[in-house]
Amino acid sequence: MPEMIDRLNDFIVCAKAATYIGSGLESISCRPGSHDLEFREGNYRYLDSYFGAANFIGEEVAYYEEKPVWAMNYYDCILVPERITAQETGEILKKSLSLLYKENRFLGGFEHSDGRDKYQDTNNGDLTSFRGKEWIERERIKVYELIYHGGLIK
Is 90 exceeded by the pLDDT of residue 23? Predict the structure, then answer.
């Protein structure tokens, strides 16, 4: 089982890096109004389906042999729109998360700062079951927040 968990973690990190962070192409929408990003590798498939732009909600699912084995739900919100735009938020997230993925992981315990902006991600649990939060502070004011949770599907 640990080998399967390690392989699943590797796949999820690779899929996340190739889709949102890697500006992957959108696939066909699976629900009206959704934006869908898909990644495949061997027997694994990943689908990130979300709604919205500046404030969005979504779900990521990893499949093995077309059976769902892992999922994560998330909701984000720009808290102070007069201090940060959706585009700036996306740029900070992409830069910070790409550094996290280079450590071959995607869950909490991570911080990145460029002086003006500070990204933080904290969570409880591991790939099998977790809850977490990420946020961006601009000049020490929290301007963005995302809540997430998920784990294995049995």
Answer: no
DSSP string, 25-42: PEE--SSTT-EEEEEEET
Residue 23's CB is within 10 A of a number of other CB atoms, namely: 10
Tokens 């315990």, residue?
A: 109
**Distance between CA 5 and CA 24 in Å, rounded?**
25
Tell me the C-alpha distance between 88 and 85, whole Å: 5
Tokens of 98: 């790409």
Residue 143, token pair as written in the block: 């301007």
Domain limits, the chain: 2-147
Identify the bridge partners of residue 152 per DSSP, sorted by sequence position. 70
Q: What is the pLDDT of residues 68-103, one digit of tens each?
A: 999 999 999 999 999 999 999 999 999 999 999 999
